[in-house]
Every structure is written in structure tokens, then in C-alpha cells.
Amino acid sequence: MSKYTSASTYPWKDELEHYRTLAEQAGPPPADGWNRERKLALVESVVRAYTPYQDSQGAIIDPFSGVERYYSTPAYAMAAAVLVDAGRTDLLQSAAAALSQSIDAVVKRSAPDNHPDFFPVLMMRAYMLLKSHLPEQAKIWAEALKTIDPEQDYVFTMSKMNNPNRMINWNAIMISGEYLRWHEQLANEGTTWMDRYLEAYHVPRFTALGLYQDGPLDRPNCPFSYDIATRYHLGVMLEAGYEGATADRLREQLRHGAFSLLLTLSPLGEIPPRGRSSQHQWNEAAAAYVCSTHATQALEVGDPVMAGAFARAANRCFAAVERWKMDDGRLKIVRNEYAPEDRHGYEIYTNHTCYNLWTAAALAHACLSDPGDDVGEVYLPSEVGSRVLQTDGWFETVIASIPGQQLVLHTAMNDPYTIPGLVRIQQMGLPSLIGPSAASHVQAGFTEFAEGEVRPLSYCPAWKTPDGVWHSLAEGIPFGGAYDRDVGLDPAQGGGSIVYEKVDHDTRNQVEQHLAERAAEDVVNASENSFAVTWVGPLPGIETLRTHYVQQADLLTITYEFEGEIAAAGALIPLMFHDGREQAVITHTDHSVRTEYRGAYVESTALDQGAIIHLEEQAVASRNGLLKEARIELGGAQSLSFTIRLGEVTHEGVQVEDELEHQA
Length: 664
Description:
Blueprint: H1 13-26, H2 36-50, H3 72-85, H4 92-107, H5 119-130, H6 135-145, H7 150-153, H8 158-161, H9 169-183, H10 192-202, H11 224-239, H12 247-264, H13 281-300, H14 304-322, E1 346-347, H15 352-368, E2 387-390, E3 397-402, E4 405-410, E5 421-427, E6 447-448, E7 460-464, E8 470-472, E9 497-502, H16 510-522, E10 528-539, E11 542-552, E12 555-564, E13 568-578, E14 585-588, E15 592-597, E16 600-606, E17 612-615, E18 620-622, E19 625-635, E20 639-648, H17 654-663
Antiparallel strand pairs: 1-6, 2-3, 3-4, 4-5, 7-8, 7-13, 9-10, 10-11, 11-12, 12-20, 13-19, 14-15, 15-16, 16-20, 17-19, 18-19
Helix pairs in contact: 2-3, 2-15, 3-4, 3-5, 3-15, 4-5, 5-9, 9-10, 9-11, 11-12, 11-13, 12-13, 13-14, 13-15
């Protein structure tokens, strides 16, 4: 058996190989019910929901604004073309009309919202699929496509901007489509100009983990959403046969990025949240394509383990998107239940029609690259074994998983869109939002909310200084100026740093040893993660604080230790409260606080004698809806400990009482 594996330089190579061993030992998981037809059905539900919104020219009209928006039309053309190719031939004329409109928009430089850079990969894939169905029309398309001048007809080019820092994901996405145009012999230039862009502006952005750092070269802002979107498009280019100057380096980087995706995908099929466009469905749609292509590549080299792992990961990504399908076939494009017109959790550029159809197009691309229904699935890394992973570059994230549960911790201290602290807990069998799924954050120009107070909130330390003022790690470190939402910021601005360490039996301090013993007594499952992050200021009133996490089964035990003069130690607890349709039930005592939502619960319990829990009335806005803030307070202390337990709600009143008695 050949191995589909990483180069020796891949930082998580040992974790990857350890996972492979565990996956082989675990045997096949139960079938998850996904096959190519079900995937195509999800794409079809979105496409057919928008067919009535196509005008006489072929454009897809956004029902909320009454005009064509962004790249909705070429995304529709591409997704519909995949369906036509799969036998839904009644969509042929609709797909063709959308393609004609899209080509015309680029040629005439009239792309809606000045977004032509997203058109080429979508319209070229549609062209490649439709040309055999409509050979005479294809000749007209081909003649029009030959007239495109990349440097002049797109926006993010050096001819237009003359700014290396603006050669970001837009430019890479455009190049992937332009390669398809060259591949179809519809471009006058070769691939040399693409190589120059890739060599100078895109290859340097990749970390050793294969993650793409979007944003200015000197200060990438690194959303995971634009990492996965860019890798998706560069993967399309490679899959189509790109063998230019950077092909070997890109191939290795994309393979490493795929392994990093596999190792960090939540058991519910979601990529970690970080930065703008987080919690949008297209994140997981792009991930579905990446996983599908690497499942196929692993299969081609004869590695059934990695083929099965990537195939299962792709299926989980499809499931993560399908979970948010509305009755009319469209998607809730951000993971909440608010009506689309409320725009809750939307970015200023988020458009319901465009992001429905771009999601459908990415899923359609995944269907084209599907390894087939005969691949035997393999358990995901988040389903077997335990691991703690720290990302590289400027992604500043720690991801910890034990079988069926994943934690995401952000360590950035001065980014208003990436709040420090524990921001996500997801667990198999529980609603994705219960943990909660993402932190709230500072408003700094991108995200819109229908209701709720906009301020940062995560699971993180809080402390009261001698002047009686409460502070929290979620507030981060001020960076000393107005935030530029396009440029981002230098992570060094404002100071501050962190020290991450895995904690084993030999390096535990007294508090950690006590917590580990207590956690071990409280659960049967022996899988455990123990890690710590030490945060170094400048933070108000303290020099450093140490956060330590022991993760076991459905119990997480956390301790915070403060170095400095403080009047009280504390901890912030974010509670899922409202998803836009359904409200959680929150109850609390002096020592515990609990939220119940859609048949599940999360309960936090203070472990220190004398600790008191306060619940804030004001709801806090997050992309997933509304959160409530609870704060554990312990006067005159330099440390504080608490547990977080998740599970299904059983008989009313019995479970919580049993648990509180057990913890006491």
C-alpha cells in the first residue's frame, strides 16, 4: 500500500502519522448516508430555488435588492452546468443564458459590484461542461472569451493597482480561472504571467502547515475562510493540469494544507472560526472541494486510509451546509436562524443570493472531484485519539480534540475580529451552536447585526483591579489607532505575547495536578488533552496570566492563574441564548450556570469555595445569534477554577441535580 502523506518538513507530520495508525486500528465507521446523488441534490435545491429569479438576459436577480449582485450569475451557470452534465438537462438553456450573461459582463467590464475577478473560474467551468451540449453556442462563447485581457479586465492586478499588498485572494481566484481559459486554448498569452504572480505574491503567503495568509504581505489578517477559499481555487487550477514554474511547490503546499484541514475539521464538519466571513456556509463548501480532491488523489496513489478520511471529511462538510437548508431549498448563508433580510452576522459585502450560489458552485466542484461512492470511509481525526495543535504563521489558533469533541482557542491579543480565549466547543450529537460555536467580537467595520450589544465575549479570564474596575482577556490589547478593516494590523502592535505548552504528568504544577486528578475521577474515557497558554501583557494590573485546560470526554476543567495585584479573580462564560428563531433556557445558582438549547445543555460550575456567578441581562451579538454573559467572581484570590460539561438533556431536573451532587 502506498502512502499519501506529507513531506518531512510538515510541522504536524508526527500527528498525521499517529492519526493514521489510530484510524487503521479503529476500523470502518458506520455509513453516514452521503453519496454523490445526495450531494448533487443539495446543489440542485439551491439552483432550482433561484431559477425563478433569472431575467430575460440570463442574469440572476437578488430578490432582496432587485438587481444582479456580485458573481451570482456565473456561480449559477457553473452549478447548473454540473447538474446538466449529471442529467438534469432541463436546466441547459437556463445555464447557457447565465453563462452568456457572465461572459458579456467581463468582456464589457460591467460585472456587478465590480467583482469580475471571481467570474473566470466559474464561467470557464460552465463553458467546459456545456460546450458539448451546445456546440454552435460554444463557438460564440469561445470568440468572446478570447477577447479578455486579464491585466485590464480584472480589478486585482498590478496594472490596475500597482500595489503588491493588494495581490490577495482575488488575484489568486482570478488566476485559477484564467488558467482554465488558457487550458481551453482561449487565451493569447501563456502561463508565464500567472507564474510571476504566483511566485511573487501567493507562494510566499503559505505557512509550513500549508495555510494561506490572506491580506497585505507585511501584515496578513489570516481569516480561515480566505485560506480555504484560496486553496480551493488554486486546487482547481492544479487539478486542471497546471504545470507552471510554481506547480511543484503549490502541489506540496496544497497537500499540506489539506492535511491541516483534516486534522482541524470539527466532528460536525466545520473549519475553525477566525476573522471575517467566518460562519458562512461557503467556508465548508470550499472545504468539501479540498477534501474531495485529496480523497481522489489518495485513492489514485493507493492509500485507502487517507482516501477514506478525506471522503468522510468531505461528507461532513456537505452535512454542515445541508443542516442550514431552508424550506424553499435555499440556505441560511450565515449560521443563524434570522431571516435573510435581517442580515444578522452578515459582513457588509455578504449577499444572500451570491453566497447561496457560490456555495452551490463550490459544492458542485466537489461533486466533479468526488472519489466515488465505493471509497470506504475512515474515522476523522476529531473522532479518534486526542491531540492539541497550534497553528503557525499569523493564524494564532490552538485546536484541541478528543473523540467527538473539539475546542478552538484564539491567542491573538490585538485583532478586533479574533477575540482571545476559548471561542468554540463542538461535540458530536449536540447542536453546532450550543458550545457556543464562535465568540462575539468588536465592531470594526465589517459585520452587521440585527440586535444585541456588540462587544467581545469568549471563555476567558477576568479580573478586578484594586480601583474596582473589571477587565477581561477578551478586551485584548489596544493597538493605538483606528482599525483599517482592509489592511488589518501588525500583530506586534500594542505589545503582548503568549507562550503555549502541552502539559504532561512531569510538568504539571500543583494546581494542574489537582485538576487532572479531579477530572480523571469524573470521567471514564481515558482520552485526555492537557495544555496551557501563558499570556504576557501589557494587561491592566497584571504582568502575566496562565490559562490551563484539561479536556476529557464531556468535561473540560479550566484554571486561571493571575500574576499581579488584583482584588478579585474571575472568568467570563459565554452562553448560547438565541439563534434568531429559538431561545435557550438559562438557569443559574451562585455556583453554576446552565444553558439548554435544542435538547442539549452546557453547564459551567465554579470549583473554588466562595466563588459567585453573576449573569448579565444584556444580550451580546454574535454571528450565530445572541449570547449571554456570565461571570464567575472570587474575591481576594490569585487563581480560579471551573468546569464545563456538555450533554443531552434527559429527564427534567434529574440530570443537573445528579451532576451537581457528583461535582460536589
